[in-house]
């Protein structure tokens, strides 16, 4: 099953008003082609997130090639990772206009172009543009559709599906590290960039697999959810009421706009029919005009949806829980990234390098992280378990580990805490599920784009902040304490919202039982 939106006390009002009519289940929801979407998303995580986690190999090559400072050179990989997430809100605009499939295919081409152009780099600043910006934007254009499509195709097994697809990050970290190391040794880093660019073109294949659901399929999915949620959606927050009353997402303006657009297209079609007696040149001009008109209508409609999601009266920001979720995301991701960056130095300070070389602590985090995503996804899909409660429990576990990490001095104790960090950080696979519960499937692309943008800011600024604290105190202890406390502030923001309602274990509505 799934954690419905009443668990967190918010309904964005995008579900259609449907009675309890029997619905024939769609074979592509929770089955059939849905598992091809999971495979596509899994490969995207390998090629994008896995490659970014393996950039340390290329970073060493760039240091040797360009003889620049470590700080300046590190900004290349930081830009690539940060921009991939920060561009999320703008990628939501592309998805609204073009759909997930076209956006992902264009992103795959752009990502490959960034890798290939980087092979001609003459300095680090050139890499800022080609690899940091070009490849980073391309990665973002593929990553967000990969997450959104899994959310669209799954209803009862959303958490498990997201968990399986995001495990590609862990597998990719191992595979791409070994691949880049081998390619750099055999062919040099410039040829490696060419080869990796060719490999990245497989992102276009992954995008082609993202077959969009028909409007009928989407409506059926919304009906199934509404049947199990409507009876429990009475205690909504003031923001939800204002959303429904303002009605920016209501159907009447959309119908009027569609009617106007149809009139324009019909007039073009009649003109084209009447022009059959004209020359072939005029017919070609009419077809071009019709294509431009259709494209203009699509762009206007997509931009209207995107703009109303962010700036309209029924903006996503009127959802107080969602705003608290954004604040949480600003602090959360850095608490996961910082141990990866600074643990090796901490191990060196504690004279544990010999043990860490046998089995690195960062490898423990990465391996257990894979299992954490799948196991937390399975637990969240249980009928008597709320995804929201699993999400919060994992967050509390992670922040406790982050705060206790500086207090440990032995390899065994550090290994245990690192294993807990890896497992509890598996909640990343629940983030799209929680976001969808907050705003609904219709607004998932725009909403999750904001969340990963906040994660990108956290990933971009967190590690330099930790390094700055180290420069002042000559210890990493305060870096973990400050980041852990900020992380705790984000969790508290999630807890204090008055519209959060906890679902009792085992509680199911009559409609849920029927479904």
TrEMBL record:
Pfam family membership, one: MFS_1
Polar residues bias locations: 239-248
Subcellular location: Membrane
InterPro entries for the chain: MFS (IPR011701), MFS_dom (IPR020846), MFS_trans_sf (IPR036259), Proton-linked_MCT (IPR050327)
Classification via SUPFAM superfamilies: MFS general substrate transporter
Segments passing through the bilayer: 33-55, 75-96, 103-121, 127-148, 321-343, 358-376, 388-408, 414-435, 447-466, 478-496
Keyword Transmembrane included in the entry's annotation: yes
Superkingdom of the source species: Eukaryota
Location of the region described as Disordered in the Swiss-Prot/TrEMBL record: 233-264
Major facilitator superfamily (MFS) profile domain mapped to chain residues: 37-502
Gene Ontology cellular-component annotations: membrane
Keywords, sorted A to Z: Membrane, Transmembrane, Transmembrane helix
Topology relative to the membrane: Multi-pass membrane protein
GO MF entries: monocarboxylic acid transmembrane transporter activity
The UniProt record lists the keyword Repeat: no
PANTHER family linked to this entry: MONOCARBOXYLATE TRANSPORTER (PTHR11360), MONOCARBOXYLATE TRANSPORTER 14 (PTHR11360:SF239)
Protein name: MOT14 protein
Organism for this UniProt entry: Pterocles burchelli
Gene: Slc16a14
């Amino acid at each position: 099953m799934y954690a419905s939106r009443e668990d967190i006390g918010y309904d964005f009002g995008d579900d259609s008003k449907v009675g309890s009519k029997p619905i024939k289940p769609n074979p592509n929801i929770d089955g059939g082609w849905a598992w091809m979407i999971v495979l596509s998303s899994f490969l995207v995580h390998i090629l994008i997130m896995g490659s970014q986690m393996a950039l340390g190999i290329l970073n060493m090559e760039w240091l040797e090639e360009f003889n620049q400072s470590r700080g300046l050179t590190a900004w290349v990989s930081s830009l690539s990772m940060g921009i991939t997430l920060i561009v999320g809100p703008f990628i939501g605009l592309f998805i609204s206009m073009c759909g997930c499939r076209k956006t992902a295919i264009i992103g795959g081409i752009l990502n490959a172009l960034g890798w290939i152009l980087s092979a001609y780099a003459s300095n680090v600043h050139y890499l800022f543009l080609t690899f940091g910006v070009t490849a980073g934007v391309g990665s973002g254009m593929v990553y967000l559709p990969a997450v959104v499509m899994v959310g669209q195709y799954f209803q009862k097994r959303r958490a498990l599906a997201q968990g399986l697809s995001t495990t590609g990050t862990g597998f990719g970290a191992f595979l791409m590290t070994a691949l880049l190391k081998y390619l750099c040794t055999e062919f040099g880093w410039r040829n490696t960039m060419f080869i990796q660019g060719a490999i990245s073109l497989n992102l276009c294949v992954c995008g082609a697999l993202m077959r969009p659901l028909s409007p009928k399929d989407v409506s059926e999915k919304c009906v199934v959810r509404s049947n199990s949620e409507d009876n429990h959606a009475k205690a909504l927050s003031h923001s939800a009421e204002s959303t429904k009353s303002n009605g920016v997402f209501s159907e009447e303006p959309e119908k009027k706009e569609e009617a106007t657009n149809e009139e324009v297209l019909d007039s073009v079609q009649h003109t084209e029919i009447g022009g059959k007696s004209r020359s072939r040149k005029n017919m070609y001009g009419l077809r071009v005009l019709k294509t431009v008109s259709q494209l203009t209508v699509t762009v206007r409609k997509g931009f209207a949806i995107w703009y109303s999601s962010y700036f309209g009266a029924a903006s996503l920001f009127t959802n107080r829980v969602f705003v608290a979720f954004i604040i949480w995301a600003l602090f959360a991701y850095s608490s996961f990234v910082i141990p990866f960056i600074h643990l090796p130095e901490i191990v060196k300070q504690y004279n544990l390098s010999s043990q860490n070389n046998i089995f690195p602590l960062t490898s423990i985090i990465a391996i257990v992280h894979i299992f954490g995503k799948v196991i937390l996804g399975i637990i969240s899909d249980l009928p008597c378990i709320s995804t929201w409660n699993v999400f919060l429990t994992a967050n509390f576990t992670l922040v406790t580990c982050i705060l206790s990490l500086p207090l440990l001095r032995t390899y065994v104790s550090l290994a245990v805490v690192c294993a807990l960090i890896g497992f509890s950080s598996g909640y990343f696979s629940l983030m799209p599920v929680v976001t969808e519960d907050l705003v609904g499937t219709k607004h998932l692309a725009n909403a999750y784009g904001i969340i990963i943008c906040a994660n990108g800011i956290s990933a971009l600024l967190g590690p330099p902040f930790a390094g700055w604290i180290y420069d002042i105190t000559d210890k990493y202890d305060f870096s973990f304490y400050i980041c852990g406390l900020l992380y705790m502030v984000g969790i508290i923001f999630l807890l204090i919202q008055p519209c959060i309602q906890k679902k009792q274990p085992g509680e199911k509505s009559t409609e849920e039982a029927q479904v």
